[in-house]
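Before the break, one more example. Copy the sequence into your notebook; we will annotate it together after we see the structure.
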Amino acid sequence: MNTDTTPRDAKDEAARDSRSDAARDSRSDAARDSRSDAAPREGVLHPIREMALAGLSYMRARMELAGIEGKEALTRLGGVLLLAAMAVTLTLAGYLLLCLALVFGAARLLNSEHAWIWIAALTGGLHLAAAWGVLLVARGWLQKPMFASTLEEFRKDDAWLKSTAAKPR
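Here is what the structure looks like once it is written out:
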């Protein structure tokens, strides 16, 4: 653009520039359209390649989505585990304080200086017996095989494979 032009000359020059930009854009659109109207690539492998690329693109998109959702789920699970740990800690603290209150309350009712010791020992013994019972239940649960149905299906599959491999063809 020339610096010593009048405002009228500047408008004319801007109009010429915009017309040349429009012409350049229409030429590039025409070139793009002519490429899309061109005959498709020949060969048997081209459609297969296109389908494979589309499938891979689809899978990549799904994997990205699964990754994003996995991160969100992991964050949520971490928060839930933290809240569960806090709940267990607070429950244990409350239970301990409740047991102490019961022990000293019972000792106060008996009006004996050393009654709290015997009541605490009885409470401790009851808790040990309860813990032993819980451990026995857990041991019973662990003795049952996990994934029993799945393991049985694997055994059936293995037997079937062995029987088909042993038959001559």
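The longest helix spans residues 45-110. The mean pLDDT is 80. Try to locate both features in your own notes.
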